[in-house]
Amino acid sequence: MKQRKKKLAVFKFASCDGCQLSLLDCEDELLAVAGAVDIAHFLEASSRIRRGPYDVTLVEGSVTTEHDALRIQKIREQSKILVTIGACATSGGIQALRNSRDIAEMVRVVYASPQYISTLDTSTAISDHVHVDYELRGCPVNKHQLLSVLTSLLHGQVPRVPSHPVCLDCKRSGVVCVSVVDGTPCLGPVTHTGCDALCPRYGRGCFGCYGPSDTPQVAAQALVLRRQGQSDAQIAAGYASFNVGMQPFAQEFAKGLAKDKR
Amino acid sequence: MLATLRAALERRSRARVHTLAEQVERQSYLLPRARLDDLIQLLIARGYRVQGPTLRDGAIVLGPLRSDRDLPIGFTDEQRAGHYRVVPRQDVAVFGYVVGPHSFKAELLRPAQTLFRAKREAKRVRFIAEAVDDSPLCLFGARACDLAAIEVQDGVLRDSQHPDAFYAARRAASCIVAVGCTQSAPTCFCASMGTGPAPTRGYDLALTELIGDAGHRFVVAVGTRLGADLVGELGLALVPADDADLARAALRDTRRNMRKSLETTGLQEMLAAAANHPHWDDVAARCLACTNCTQVCPTCFCVGVEDRVSLDGSETERVRHWDSCFSAEYSKLHGGAVRASVRARYRQWLTHKLSTWFDQFGRSGCVGCGRCITFCPAAIDLTEEVQALRAPVSARTRARGDSSNGN
Q: How do strand B75-80 and strand B336-337 relate by DSSP bridges?
């Protein structure tokens, strides 16, 4: 008996759509994906919408409005397996920079007619609202990892989402350490794998877009960055990016700013 | 199976060669600098893929050598804990530097190795063995510490109860042209580990570079029949006694000038008894758990495996890749990591390398190359950590026992 194709859904919250595009970017494999699953809800790809329940749901973006906070509950109810894709869905995204500021003031500064804006004080990860089965990091996600996780879920294999630091990927690929050889500040030692060391491969320090690794030694990392001549403000700014909503990056960001003010 | 057998045969024939080598070894040959490329071209002509030191991305790494011009001629390296720079030399030395971020481990124990594939067919799953790579490979410019590291890995991966066919095949197919170190870096401590700076065994040819009034040349020691063969084909003359003395003196000076050392007396026992030493907390506060030390280490051999399934589920590939005891996932069993704290991970690494390695393999796992010191972004120096761990522990700390072993 032929197995029923698994139903796949993709939902978007506060985000730039880049992670969903990673799926569409799988040009060589796109037809195979379309053939292997029943794409039931994926607005970026098709206006045909089918109702749940879904076997696998990919969620992009963070929760920033009352409406979205409710919507994610409904999506969870309709999803057997829920996978967040990208930094926004997994950590709150770059928009979580607002979490440490006065939201009313920001709305006033940014919008001409602030009275039409209805928003929460914070931008939060999907896992702050519902149970998440697997989290894919990155800004954007790595399409190879996305495909590998989808493949595993389709065939009943436990998806492999490694959590080691970027340094291991550099070493496996023979990439020369930019921190040791060049003195370039690099967040690789505290950053989660997934990008295959994209930045160090091109001689740049890691920006930390995959967020903290499973053992982010941020205090030890601060000692290294200070030795490389970074000020507390610069160290804080290094964490003020796509994963500023995730601990311990959030705390390092706040700590660095506080120190700098003193 | 076939590969294992072939490797065993190769091993036996090599053992015979070594006795011959002992006679040949007493004689050294002279290779003028202008003829160094002849050696490389001869190796290439014989079908060897020559891998050796070359300049890339601001470091002396291991890469393909097509001619002597690919070598980092006239460059040296500046190394200290957490710091590596390549700078020009005053002369045109060919081997005027020490070891860099890469080691020949990457050639013998590949960072990623397919072990087998499986295909789903109508009524069964077909397993397809992965062929071993036994294409001729020349490890050019291996230092004495590199040779010692290869010997350590041979013991673990080739000559052990469960040999690795992929490693054994690569090893059997490799020719080693070693280089005696005529200088050391502040991170080198091979002399105290008894592994260098002069290559003593495990090479086919070993070169020692001499630059001076008598010209730019290499004293070539022959280690095997293959080495003797290469020297014969190049038609090299025996080395003048003066040059042989100069080469010996140069290697002796390197040993004398080596500043760093690791005190190995009683080290195995000391570390075995130091599980509750408070200093582990101190180093854990500085350690990034970034895995760099284990990856640059030429003897660390830990690997993980993963299955890569094709999208349609018809095929799968099992791949082995380098892994590290510094990653939380590495010790993950049901429910979590056995070594959850960085303290436990650093302790595991250092204790294994310098103490339990003896219990397991009858020797130290450290060859004194200093890579883990230079390439630790946090500048942690294992020789200093060992020094600190030698400080006596108070009776109270020792009595804390297993309940607080910091995992």
A: unpaired
**CA nearest A145 in B: which residue?**
B308
Give the model's confidence band at B392: pLDDT under 50 very low, under 70 low, under 90 confident, else very high: confident
**pTM for the structure as a whole:** 0.92
Tokens matching residue B41: 């071209």
Best CA proximity match to A58, nearest among A135, A111, A161 = A135
Given a contact cutoff of 8 angstroms between Cβ atoms, the answer to whether A87 and A209 are in contact is: yes
* Most A-contacting residue of B290, B292, B302 (CB-CB within 10 A), to test interface: B290
Q: How many helices (H) and strands (E) does chain B have?
A: 16, 16
pLDDT tens readout for residues B171-209? 999 999 999 999 999 999 999 999 999 999 999 999 999
| Residue A132 Cα, gap to closest chain B Cα (Å) | 18
Q: Do B328 and A214 touch (CB under 8 A)?
A: yes
- HSE-up (13 A, CA, CB side) for residue B117: 10
Contact, A192 vs A163, CB < 8 A? yes
- Burial class for B200, CB neighbours closer than 10 Å (0-12, 13-18, 19+): middle
User: Which residues does chain A have within 8 Å of residue B290's beta carbon, measured at their own beta carbons?
Assistant: 165, 167-168, 188-190, 217
The residue in chain B having the minimum alpha-carbon distance to the alpha carbon of residue A30 is B311
Q: CB distance A172–B321 less than 8 Å?
A: yes
Residues sharing a CB contact under 8 Å with residue B192, sequence separation 6 or more, in sequence order:
B258, B260, B261, B262, B263, B264, B368
* Tokens coding A251: 């705390």
Cα separation, B215 vs B221, in Å, equals 19
Longest Cα–Cα distance in chain A: 70
For residue B240, cis peptide bond before it (omega within 30 degrees of 0): no
Residue in A with minimal Cα distance to B337: A214
Q: Which pLDDT tens digit goes with each residue over A89-126?
A: 999 999 999 998 899 999 999 999 999 999 999 999 99
